[in-house]
């Protein structure tokens, strides 16, 4: 019984920390680019902040996946008994959002950095610069969806 | 739908009427002037342009020195003051801005010189600082005839080896340790001139760093005091210039007015230079919305007898510019169309069809009554308080309507700042619960199905638009065989999935309909190829396109994900706030309030950003992919263009 609970928590923490790492990485990449642009033109701070924030969503998706697993096993409300097999299932259910968030977070950061350079040269094209990194985010969203659907399908 | 039809026109006139005609055109702001090729060498040496550049850099200087920071909102949506053209003209004529520019130039040069001086002084002080222990005047150090004195530093670890070698060399040598820091020992070495060369060799070997001190008639301490005095003076002077600049920044408004006034003049002058010209007449050509032809012709007639406007046909290969015209309701959504690019002159304007979907998707992603109303209220105040540029206004209006729509969807999902409805007091709990149609957290599958259904609908609408457009372009065959057939096939396919749940009796019939559709596609889609085999293969391969429609539809599942992000993060904020209020007495409630305010504001910003982007993406990629090409050139009328103000 304890092992089941442990596995479920491991799933939740994988979802949260992997995706959070991806976001941190992506935001760092975008921030480096933004810092360079800001040395030339500090007035662009507002727009660039939006670009830098874009790879931040993966962290939230991961957190959400983790929270969904926590709710499933009612961790915050005292916890329910988690059989070993269910724990293992919950562990694997947590992985899609974790790994999708890790990889897509980094690459979205790179796409955002490219968008930042676009804004540096053509500020009137901010809309396009924001949309392109969002293409990458799609796959983090799919990872989150997979996790949510898997978790809600698992029977305790 | 609402791409405005434009007509190429030419305006002829007498030289005398040229300036007034251009002024009239600039005020009317409805004609896009086609620049003439000859314009390039017609550029006269332009004082105006130089003056404008000087003004711009003066404004930049004063802005950086004014001590006023731009507000965070201004960073996103710069706003402009509304002023009359008369005020601009008066300011430019009354305010002696040239004198101000001269003064600023002088201050800037002085500031730059002082900065250089400060750096030099700091460097000199840095050199002298370690040698304060020397009490001799500095020009005395090397004043002896037969003996010399070297001062400098050596690494601590090398000292013993170095001194051993030096003392082995000669006995007529004095080594004095002056002081030491973490790494280095500061030495003064006295020697006879005849040993000079060999001593220097040894010192070089041990990386001895010679210090070169200025040869003044003061001791290091006195010299340092002098330099520090100078430094202080330089710094004070800089401060004083800084405050002078700060007080001069009171003229910023006037300078901005003058900048925009001169900029209008420059535009007029550039337009003038771009005209074709004979000795007594001029001609200009350009694009004009068809509806504006009569009014503009009348205006020109009224202003002078010497002006004529005629319609002409465009040259071969000339592409007319695109001007969108939508009813005020759809206006804000042009922002989304513009992200992709304007339609070509003969294309559909996708703004109206996308606006409905965009609003719905935005609302689904945000889906909270509290957040929706908060967003609407904030946007409303921004619209009222700030004079926004056209684009900024559109975005804020978009957010306003999005907020209202999100609060409607929020009622359906039972989300009010993500508060758990179970915790509410009785009349509220059952009241709000009865309004709740669906709980996304308890039944995500239903929301997913709804999202996918919306995707199917938008895909089909996109195909219908493509078909509609081809019919209007009289491409009947392609309209029916390509878009029509796909429309039929996809509808049949979707109903094949749904029908077992709704009317199981008809599923056999539906199966036949799907097969007919597939067969027709196989038969027709290869028709452009040569040879029967190629036709068959391409026909068969075309069925593969189904997967791209499937992919497009699945992409709408993001609606569910974003909806849940908003509500779950909101929920977590509430839970954390609840925990603090219970675990810490009295102060806990204060902390709870802080957590609630900051947390929900944060969630609002993140969610709005996500909703804005992903709702837009669904339009641009999935929806536009079906029917829209874009790539039109924007209609840029000759009109007052300003940087800082809006001319009333």
TrEMBL record, chain A:
GO terms for cellular component: proton-transporting V-type ATPase, V0 domain. InterPro entries: ATPase_proteolipid_c-like_dom, ATPase_proteolipid_csu, F/V-ATP_Csub_sf. Gene3D superfamilies: lithium bound rotor ring of v- atpase. Signal peptide: none annotated. Keywords: Ion transport, Membrane, Transmembrane, Transmembrane helix, Transport. It is found in: Membrane. It is a multi-pass membrane protein. NCBIfam families: PRK06558.1. This is Permease. It comes from candidate division WOR-1 bacterium RIFOXYB2_FULL_48_7.
Automatic annotation (TrEMBL), chain B:
It is found in: Membrane. The lineage of its organism: Bacteria, Bacillati, Saganbacteria. It comes from the Bacteria. Pfam families: V_ATPase_I (PF01496). The keyword Iron does not apply. It is a multi-pass membrane protein. This is Uncharacterized protein. GO terms for biological process: vacuolar acidification. Keywords: Ion transport, Membrane, Transmembrane, Transmembrane helix, Transport.
């Amino acid at each position: 019984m304890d092992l089941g609970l442990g596995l479920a928590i491991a799933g939740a923490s994988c979802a949260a920390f992997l995706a959070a790492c991806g976001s941190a990485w992506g935001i760092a990449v975008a921030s480096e680019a933004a810092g360079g642009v800001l040395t030339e033109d500090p007035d662009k701070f507002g727009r660039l902040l939006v670009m830098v924030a874009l790879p931040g969503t993966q962290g939230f998706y991961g957190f959400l996946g983790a929270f969904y697993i926590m709710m499933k096993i009612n961790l915050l409300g005292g916890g329910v008994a988690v059989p070993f097999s269910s724990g293992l299932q919950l562990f694997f259910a947590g992985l899609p959002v974790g790994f999708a968030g890790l990889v897509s977070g980094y690459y979205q950061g790179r796409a955002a950095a490219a968008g930042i350079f676009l804004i540096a040269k053509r500020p009137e094209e901010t809309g396009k610069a924001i949309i392109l990194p969002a293409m990458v985010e799609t796959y983090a969203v799919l990872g989150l969806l997979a996790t949510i659907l898997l978790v809600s399908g698992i029977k305790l | 739908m609402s791409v405005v039809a434009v007509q190429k026109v030419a305006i002829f006139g007498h030289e005398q009427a040229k300036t007034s005609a251009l002024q009239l055109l600039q005020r009317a702001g409805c004609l896009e002037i086609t620049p003439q090729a000859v314009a390039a060498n017609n550029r006269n040496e332009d004082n105006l342009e130089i003056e404008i550049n000087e003004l711009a850099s003066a404004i930049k200087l004063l802005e950086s020195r004014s001590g006023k920071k731009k507000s965070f909102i201004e960073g996103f949506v710069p706003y402009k003051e509304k002023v009359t053209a008369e005020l601009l003209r008066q300011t430019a004529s009354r305010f002696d801005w040239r004198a101000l520019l001269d003064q600023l130039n002088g201050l800037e040069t002085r500031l730059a010189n002082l900065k250089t001086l400060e750096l030099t002084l700091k460097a000199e002080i840095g050199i002298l600082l370690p040698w304060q222990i020397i009490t001799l005047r500095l020009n005395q150090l090397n004043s002896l005839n037969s003996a010399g004195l070297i001062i400098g530093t050596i690494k601590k670890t090398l000292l013993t080896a170095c001194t051993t070698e030096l003392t082995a060399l000669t006995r007529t040598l004095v080594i004095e340790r002056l002081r030491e820091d973490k790494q280095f020992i500061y030495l003064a070495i006295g020697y006879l001139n005849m040993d000079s060369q060999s001593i220097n060799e040894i010192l070089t070997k041990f990386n001895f760093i010679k210090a070169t001190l200025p040869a003044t008639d003061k001791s290091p301490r006195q010299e340092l005091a002098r330099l520090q005095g100078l430094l202080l003076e330089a710094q004070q002077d800089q401060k004083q210039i800084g405050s002078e600049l700060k007080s001069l920044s009171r003229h910023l408004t006037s300078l901005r007015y003058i900048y925009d006034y001169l900029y209008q003049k420059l535009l007029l002058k550039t337009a003038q230079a771009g005209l074709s010209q004979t000795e007594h007449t001029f001609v200009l050509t350009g694009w004009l919305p068809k509806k504006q032809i009569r009014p503009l012709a009348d205006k020109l007639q009224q202003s002078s007898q010497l002006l004529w406007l005629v319609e002409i046909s465009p040259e071969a290969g000339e592409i007319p510019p695109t001007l969108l015209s939508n009813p005020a309701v759809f206006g804000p959504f042009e922002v989304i169309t513009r992200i992709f690019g304007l339609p070509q002159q003969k294309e559909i304007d996708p703004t109206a069809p996308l606006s409905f979907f965009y609003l719905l998707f935005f609302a689904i992603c945000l889906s909270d009554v509290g957040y929706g109303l908060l967003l609407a209220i904030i946007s409303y105040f921004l619209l009222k308080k700030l004079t926004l540029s056209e684009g900024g206004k559109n975005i804020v209006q978009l957010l306003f309507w999005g907020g209202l729509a999100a609060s409607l969807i929020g009622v359906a999902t039972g989300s009010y700042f993500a508060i758990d409805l179970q915790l509410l007091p009785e009349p509220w709990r059952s009241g709000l619960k009865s309004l709740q149609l669906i709980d996304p957290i308890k039944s995500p599958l239903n929301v997913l199905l709804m999202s996918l259904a919306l995707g199917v609908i938008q895909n089909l609408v996109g195909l219908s638009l493509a078909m509609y457009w081809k019919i209007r372009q009289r491409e009947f065959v392609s309209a029916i065989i390509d878009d029509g057939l796909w429309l039929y096939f996809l509808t049949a396919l979707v109903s094949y999935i749904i029908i077992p749940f709704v009317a199981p009796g008809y599923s056999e019939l539906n199966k036949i309909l799907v097969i007919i559709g597939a067969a027709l596609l196989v038969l027709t889609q290869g028709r452009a190829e040569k040879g029967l085999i190629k036709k068959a293969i391409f026909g068969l391969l075309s069925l593969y396109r189904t997967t791209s429609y499937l992919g497009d539809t699945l992409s709408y599942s993001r609606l569910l994900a974003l909806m849940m992000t908003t509500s779950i993060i909101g929920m977590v904020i509430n839970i954390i706030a609840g925990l603090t209020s219970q675990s810490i007495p009295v102060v806990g409630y204060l902390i709870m309030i802080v957590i609630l305010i900051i947390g929900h504001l944060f969630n609002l910003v993140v969610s709005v950003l996500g909703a804005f982007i992903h709702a837009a993406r669904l339009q641009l990629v999935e929806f536009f992919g079906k029917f829209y090409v874009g790539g039109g050139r924007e209609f840029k009328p000759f009109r007052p263009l300003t940087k800082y103000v809006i001319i009333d």
